[in-house]
Description:
This protein has helices at about 5-15, 15-35, 40-55, 60-70, 75-80, 95-100. By secondary structure, the chain is mostly helical. α3 runs antiparallel to α4. It is elongated, with a radius of gyration of 17 Å. The two termini are about 25 Å apart.
Amino acid sequence: MGGKSNPLVTRFLADEDFKAQYEAAKTELADKLYESGTAEEILDKWTTLLNNEASDLIDSETVSGEADAIRSHFTSDSAQSSTPSSQQPSTAPKTEEDEATPGTSTTSNS
């Protein structure tokens, strides 16, 4: 946040073995998110939420344009080059279906 680096992250990534494991795990996660369609599903949930619940705040053309800009990063090549190492994962908004199923999560620990 604010362009500041985290000293702990910097220290861990200075270790070449750890950094290699980190990069491999990041690549594997990105591949899973994009190839499985999970990233697209999350983007669709947010887009639908904004269009249905916030249309008085943001017009659908803006939502569509922004969603398309995000979607353009859903390839492993652009995702690897444009994802900052300090970026935190995001989850989709909960739907009524999610709320009706306690104990489930929109993210996976696998």
